[in-house]
Specification:
Structural class of chain B: alpha+beta
CATH superfamily of the largest domain in chain A: Bira Bifunctional Protein, Domain 2
Strand content of chain B: 25-35%
Number of helices of chain A: 13
Number of domains of chain A: 2
CATH topology of the largest domain in chain A: BirA Bifunctional Protein, domain 2
Oligomer: heterodimer
Strand order of the largest sheet of chain B: 27-30-31-35-34-33-32
Low-confidence stretches of chain A: 1-5
Radius of gyration of chain B: 42 Å
Number of domains of chain B: 6
Largest sheet of chain B: 7 strands, mixed
Largest interface: A-B, 83 and 90 residues
CATH topology of the largest domain in chain B: BirA Bifunctional Protein, domain 2
Order of helices and strands of chain A: HHHHHEEHHEHEEHEEEHEHHH
CATH class of the largest domain in chain A: Alpha Beta
Largest sheet of chain A: 7 strands, mixed
Structural class of chain A: alpha+beta
Strand content of chain A: 15-25%
Number of strands of chain B: 39
Shape of chain A: rod-shaped
Helix content of chain A: 40-55%
Strand order of the largest sheet of chain A: 1-4-5-9-8-7-6
Number of helices of chain B: 20
CATH architecture of the largest domain in chain A: 2-Layer Sandwich
Radius of gyration of chain A: 44 Å
CATH superfamily of the largest domain in chain B: Bira Bifunctional Protein, Domain 2
Distance between the termini of chain A: 102 Å
Mean pLDDT of chain A: 90
Shape of chain B: elongated
Chain lengths: ~350, ~800
């Protein structure tokens, strides 16, 4: 009788345990939230949970069976706990996925910008030119914008009453002082310091008495270049400016040198570059020529050297002058020079 | 300088290149072609036709029906030309051909195509053409009728079927050159032809000029004297008698027309022709009007009046050279002759003058009296005196050739100092060294010979003819070699030699920082003119005696509005802000980096001081403290953080008196910022409050630095104390902060104002301020006692300022 009762108790417990386990797993599988999973955990594994309740019946089990029952209960607990962990991880994953889904935003809505300011197109072009020449070992120097006639003209081999002085439409302060018409006087100033060799560029503002229109401004910018050393040749000038043109207008750019005349260089040349719009085939941009005139250049005139105290028998050099606006207008396809000095924010914002 | 290609070919007969190849070649050898125009670009299928029969049109009063012989065929053409008649030879455009424009002289781009068609029911196979329809005008073809078709004359020697375009000389190209000022010889057809021959390797054939003159001698007609030889290095004259004024031959008229010069009569055309051909202006006087038959070359009297042959009167001074007779002025030397001695159709005997004048004087004189002429534009380049007699010989030869008069023997030639050719040592190695080439000696000589630069083997020198005024030294010879060797055949290398460091100056780096910070803070870069109106100072409300009114004046400005060099940068940025405001641009922030020009003395004795100004301005979003923030960011980047003072005393009249600050570093005024005064704002037309700042870069450079030293990051915890207080309104924050810092000692790490309030809950005349103080030691964890001690000192200090802690 006792054995029977006890035997019944063993199987009862096993059955109950099995039922608890099955139900727990089933409930856990059905759980959709961390809260409901927790409720299941409390109901099964909690202090008042089913397993604890079951353990209360342990006293009815024979002492020799108790270790087995204990082992069975522990096994069931392990299974349930493993399942709990599995479901918890799944639910967490699902919640994360749901949350991420809910947080989806419209990436095409307008950006919130810091409203940075914009650099003037002249300045951008200038910095590009500076970068190229600084990389080639040129120092960037400055000279006065209000300049002595002597530096602007005489020391550049343009003697008093030379017609070139008329051609340049000079603004005069008095007979000795002018608004410089070119950045070339910086050449003379640098050469006079006597420090050789020289590799320099001198960007800056220049002035000509031109009325304002789409292609003229009484105030604009030039960049002067000067190299003085032993054995400098016209070939070096060509090589340097060709390099410059490729850097600024693209590696496909071709250059063409035409003889020209400047009082302070001899031989002198003008450089054209192949049109970077059409590649030289001729278009509206280059007026069908395929070439665009970019700069004037030449070998420093020996008389200029002499006036600056450099021995032309020992030293040679080359010089060039580029119009900054010319580059900026071409590069950015700006069709009216007046825009550069109006400072309309709608213009400036484009650079 | 313009010439027709056909005129060039008169001296380079073998020249056989397309117009495009001609222009490209000339440009690459240094005679730059600006552009060229084919006169017959829009002319096609135009032949000479002879009208064989002409009958009235049955349905029209003004049309006639012509049968026209076009050489190999006869075609029927209906025309309305009033001068059509049997027997005439006229240009005929055949069906499928093109003409340049209408008979009213209006040109059509691409021309007008002519088709066979019916005129009032009668078939017409082409059109007889007026000179206007052929793209020219009576100005250049004076023989053409005012109204009607062009009719060839017998002397044209044309027959039906001939190319009418060729017969009219319209199969030509007008070429425009840019001649550089060193190549005075190229302001002549001969000069360009010489270059063309050298460029294309053809022979150059100068005009053949023969001796002229009868048995008489000029001395019995005329004498001459040059008094001012400094301005007239050479004076030549010849006399022509028995003048027969008439038209010049067609070939000469065509040459002139193709260069845009209107044919007039034989004498005028010869002087114009020779001026173009030789580049030497000439003048003709009526000998009978020359008092005493004597010519004197001499400077004018001060105040002397003179009327040129175009009827304009000028007042002269003693810098202007005149040609005179025994009594009066008869010409402005090198500019224009006088009305009193001009050639008329009644002229019997004339004087031809071919002289050489000082180029600079002619340029200055023509500028002074405001009268530039074709002649003065040639003379002012400075001509070759040896060319004067050559041109004279050519002109007299043409006079004889055309039967325009009888040339009297002998020439007056006053030429005290003959100009000799320049000699330059021939240094082929030096030339190669300059060009970076390896051109052989003989090859160099061959290039030089092309342009008549001769080699003298006895002295090993290059001899430059006097018309080449640009050849003085070896570098000039090198350019000639380079030109004909080809600039584009010169190798391409990079400079060798000692390495140099590429760099920007400290000032440029500071300016770069200024741009970076300004742009980061939303300011865009503007550029403003250096010159402005003197009215700017009134607009900015400057005092009458403000030193900034002392500006450098431009003596020849574009106008009052651009007449002074700016002494302050503010006007530029305010004008730009106003432009934007007017255009309804919102929230505009601009900055500029540009010089101001401060004279040391006026009138200017030495160069003014140029000071770079960093100027900022904005309207719209933001206030004074936003502008101050930009400046502080900039100062932070250039090592001036926290060491400058702001003085709020109202000193600048153009700023709001209560909202402006002078920026001071160790007593040096480095700039200012503030709100623009409402009156100034209004006068510029800026409707919003606007804020500006001006920083003087040279002042900043004294103090600025990019040096930085790392300070260890704090290891010990900090202690924070907040202070809330009631402060008399006139006490500035800087005073409070200074007091807190002074009293807080070494352990006070930072002071930050986090609240300021005026109004309800605060007594009138006071403001409520709240600071957050952070204490920290670099050596230990602070203890309560350390902080309390510091706080006590601070509070004592504050109460000495009549500041009360808020409970």
């Amino acid at each position: 009788m006792e054995i029977e009762r006890k035997g019944k108790t063993m199987s009862d417990i096993r059955e109950r345990l099995e039922r608890i386990r099955q139900q727990a797993v089933q409930h856990m599988d059905e759980a959709r939230t961390a809260e409901s999973l927790n409720e299941i955990r409390v109901a099964v594994l909690g202090k008042k949970g089913e397993l604890k309740d079951l353990m209360k019946g342990l006293k009815d089990v024979t002492p020799e069976d108790r270790p087995r029952v204990g082992q069975m209960v522990n096994e069931a607990r392990d299974v349930i706990e493993a399942k709990l962990e599995e479901v918890r991880a799944r639910l967490e994953q699902e919640k994360m996925a749901r949350d991420l889904e809910n947080e989806k935003i419209d990436v095409t809505l307008p950006a919130r910008k810091a409203d940075l300011g914009h650099r003037h197109p002249n300045q951008i072009a200038l910095e590009e030119v500076e970068r190229i020449f600084v990389g080639m070992g040129y120092e960037v120097v400055e000279g006065p914008e209000v300049e002595y006639d002597e530096y602007n003209f005489t020391k550049l081999n343009i003697p008093p009453d030379h017609p070139a002085k008329d051609e340049q439409d000079t603004f005069y302060i008095n007979k000795d002082i002018v608004l410089r018409t070119q950045t070339s006087p910086v050449q003379a100033r640098v050469m006079e310091t006597g420090k050789l060799p020289i590799r320099m560029i001198a960007p800056g503002r220049v002035f000509r008495a031109d009325e304002v229109d789409a292609t003229h401004s009484p105030s604009f910018h030039q960049i002067e270049g000067l190299v003085v050393d032993k054995n400098i040749t016209l070939a070096d000038l060509k090589g340097t400016l060709e390099e410059f043109a490729k850097e600024i207008f693209g590696p496909e750019t071709k250059t063409k040198f035409r003889p020209h005349h400047f009082p302070f260089t001899e031989p002198s040349a003008e450089m054209d570059v192949s049109c970077f719009k059409c590649g030289g085939e001729g278009c509206r941009f280059c007026k069908g020529e395929g070439w665009i005139e970019i700069l004037g250049c030449g070998m420093v005139h020996p008389h200029v050297f002499e006036m600056c105290g450099i021995d032309p028998e020992e030293y040679t050099g080359f010089a060039f002058g580029v119009g900054l606006e010319r580059i900026a207008l071409l590069k950015y396809e700006i069709d009216d020079m007046r825009l550069l000095y109006e400072n309309d924010i709608r213009f400036l914002k484009q650079f | 300088m313009n010439t027709s290609l056909s005129w060039i070919k008169r001296y380079v007969p073998d020249l056989d290149v397309t117009p495009q190849a001609y222009c490209d070649g000339m440009t690459l050898s240094g005679t730059k072609v600006e552009n060229f125009r084919k006169l017959d670009a829009d002319l096609e299928k135009i032949v000479v036709g002879r009208v064989l029969e002409q009958v009235p049109h049955p349905d029209s009063d003004h049309l006639v029906i012509c049968q026209v012989d076009i050489g190999n065929d006869t075609v029927q053409i209906v025309t309305g030309a009033p001068n059509s008649a049997v027997g005439i030879l006229t240009p005929v455009v055949l069906p499928g051909g093109r003409v340049a424009g209408g008979h009213d002289g209006k040109m059509t781009a691409g021309g007008i195509e002519i088709k066979a068609g019916k005129l009032r029911g009668v078939d017409s196979y082409g059109m007889m053409c007026s000179i206007e329809e052929l793209g020219s005008s009576r100005e250049f073809y004076p023989e053409a009728p005012e109204n009607g078709i062009y009719i060839f004359s017998d002397e044209d020697g044309v027959k039906p079927g001939d190319d009418a375009i060729h017969a009219l000389g319209l199969d030509d190209v007008d070429v425009e050159y840019e001649i550089t000022s060193n190549r005075v010889d190229c302001y002549s057809v001969i000069g360009i032809a010489r270059e063309a021959a050298a460029t294309f390797g053809k022979s150059f054939q100068a005009p053949e000029v023969t001796e002229t003159g009868n048995k008489e001698d000029i001395s019995s007609y005329l004498s001459a004297e040059v008094i001012d030889t400094d301005l007239c290095p050479r004076f030549t004259a010849r006399v022509i008698k028995n003048i027969k004024i008439g038209p010049s031959p067609k070939w000469m008229q065509r040459c002139l027309a193709s260069s845009g010069i209107r044919p007039i009569n034989n004498v005028v055309d010869i002087t114009n022709y020779v001026m173009e051909e030789y580049g030497q202006p000439m003048h003709a006087y009526d000998l009978d009007t020359i008092a005493g038959h004597k010519i004197i070359v001499k400077r004018a009297e001060n105040g002397e009046k003179f009327t040129t042959l175009d009827g304009k009167e000028y007042t002269l001074d003693n810098t202007i050279l005149t040609i005179r007779d025994a009594e009066k002025g008869i010409g402005l030397a090198g500019i224009m002759g006088g009305e009193n001695t001009m050639i008329t159709d009644q002229v019997q005997t004339m004087v031809f003058e071919s002289a050489n004048f000082d180029g600079t004087n002619i340029r200055l004189s023509s500028k002074k009296i405001g009268h530039q002429t074709d002649a003065s534009r040639k003379f002012d380049k400075g001509l070759d005196p040896n060319n004067a007699s050559a041109a004279m010989a050519r002109a007299c030869q043409l006079i004889e050739e055309f039967g325009a008069g009888e040339v009297v023997g002998g020439m007056i030639d006053i030429y005290p100092e003959k100009r000799e050719p320049v000699r330059v040592p021939f240094e082929p190695d030096k030339i190669n060294a300059l060009l970076g080439t390896d051109i052989g000696r003989e090859e160099q000589l061959a290039y030089l010979e092309k342009v008549e630069l001769a080699y003298d083997p006895d002295t090993d020198e290059i001899v430059a003819p006097t018309f080449r005024q640009d050849i003085h030294r070896t570098c000039d010879v090198a350019e000639e070699v380079a030109r004909f060797y080809g600039y584009n055949n010169i190798p391409v290398t990079l400079p060798s030699g000692e390495a140099t460091t590429g760099k920007l100056s400290f000032k440029m780096l500071i300016e770069e920082k200024a741009r970076d910070v300004a742009e980061y803070c939303g300011f865009s870069q503007g550029m403003c003119y250096s010159f402005e109106s003197p009215k700017v100072f009134d607009r900015l409300l400057l005092d009458r005696d403000d030193v900034r009114r002392q500006a450098v004046k431009i003596s020849n400005p574009l106008g009052e509005d651009y007449s002074i060099m700016r002494t302050m940068s503010l006007n530029g940025i305010l004008t730009s802000l106003a432009t934007n405001y007017n255009r309804r641009n919102k929230d505009v922030r601009l900055y500029e980096l540009g010089n101001i020009y401060l004279p040391k003395t006026l009138p200017l004795q030495e160069l003014p001081e140029e000071r770079m100004q960093f100027t900022l301005g904005f309207y719209g979003k933001g206030d004074f403290y936003d502008m101050k923030g930009v400046i502080e960011e900039f100062f932070g980047k250039i090592g001036l953080q926290g060491i400058v003072d702001y003085d709020g005393a109202p000193v600048q009249p153009y700023l709001h008196p209560g909202r402006q600050a002078k920026i001071i570093y160790r007593g040096t005024h480095m700039g200012e910022l503030g709100e623009v005064h409402p009156l100034v704002r209004a006068s510029y037309g800026i409707g919003d409050r606007a804020y500006v700042a001006v920083l003087d870069i040279p002042s900043l450079l004294q103090a600025a630095t990019f040096d930085r030293k790392y300070k260890g990051i704090a290891k010990f915890p900090s202690v924070t104390r907040d202070l809330s207080m009631v402060v008399p309104k006139m006490i500035e924050a800087a005073v409070i902060e200074k007091m807190i810092r002074q009293r807080g000692g070494k352990i006070l790490e930072s002071v930050e104002l986090f609240d300021i309030y005026e109004g309800a809950q605060v007594m009138p005349g006071y403001k409520s301020m709240a600071y957050s103080l952070v204490f920290r030691s670099s050596e230990k964890t602070l203890e309560e006692a350390d902080v309390s001690a510091a706080m006590k000192k601070i509070l004592n200090g504050l109460s000495s300022l009549k500041i009360v802690l808020r409970q």
